[in-house]
């Protein structure tokens, strides 16, 4: 095996380890939960941290790994839950929205670059994305299972109480991701 091939293999191994660690961090952060209609968790902090540290591609793969682990029944979601039923339930749209958040953050990273203000802006845009996915999904599931509900009511349950905590989590993730990125070396050439 040549030195270049060995280095690439070592880099891929580190990538897989980092992605697994951040997927586990998302699970742990989802377990830190205050139960409500849509639980308050630290999961979004881990989402933003994963993409902030690992970059868009690896961060998106990490989020996909996390969702797939939950989909097959491993209890990685809030309340130590797992399975397709969680993804199909009222809060499932937020979980699926996490993947689109990571993908949007990746696009922002590719287009304007990796400046701190771009990362902050992409995190706020990502928050809006999972709010939209989650709110629409919640309304569909709630209407199907319980009956019609007004958008204002759903926003009062699922979005408004989360805005300030999510902005605080974004600030924490932004600060920590910049510090961790100096320690964790990611090969951006691949």
Care to describe what's here?
The structure is a single chain. The protein has 190 residues and is mostly helical. 75% of the residues lie in helices and 2% in strands. It has eight helices and two strands; from the N terminus they run αββααααααα. A two-stranded antiparallel sheet has the order 1-2. Helix 1 packs across helix 3, helix 2 runs parallel beside helix 8 and helix 5 packs antiparallel against helix 6.
Radius of gyration: 17 Å
Which shape, going by the Cα principal axes? Answer: globular
Number of helices: 8
SSE order: HEEHHHHHHH
Range of helix content: over 70%
Indicate the mean pLDDT.
92
Strand count, sense and barrel status of the largest sheet are:
2 strands, antiparallel
Spatial strand arrangement across the major sheet = 1-2
Name the beta content range.
under 5%
- Strands, count: 2
Cα distance spanning the termini: 19 Å
Low-confidence stretches: none
- Oligomeric description of these chains: single chain
Structural class: mainly alpha
């Amino acid at each position: 095996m040549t030195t270049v091939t060995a280095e690439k293999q070592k880099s891929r191994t580190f990538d897989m380890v980092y992605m697994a660690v951040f997927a586990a961090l998302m699970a742990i952060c989802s377990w830190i939960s205050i139960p409500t209609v849509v639980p308050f968790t630290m999961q979004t902090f881990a989402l933003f941290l994963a993409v902030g540290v690992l970059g868009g591609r690896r961060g998106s793969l990490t989020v996909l790994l996390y969702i797939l682990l939950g989909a097959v029944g491993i209890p990685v979601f809030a309340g130590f839950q797992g399975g397709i039923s969680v993804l199909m339930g009222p809060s499932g749209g937020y979980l699926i929205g996490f993947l689109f958040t990571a993908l949007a953050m990746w696009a922002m990273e590719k287009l304007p670059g990796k400046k701190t203000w771009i990362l902050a802006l992409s995190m706020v845009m990502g928050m809006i994305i999972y709010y939209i996915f989650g709110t629409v999904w919640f309304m569909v599931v709630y209407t199907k299972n319980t009956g019609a509900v007004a958008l204002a009511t759903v926003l009062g349950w699922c979005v408004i109480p989360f805005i300030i905590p999510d902005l605080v989590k974004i600030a924490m993730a932004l600060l920590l991701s910049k510090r961790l990125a100096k320690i964790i070396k990611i090969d951006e050439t691949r």
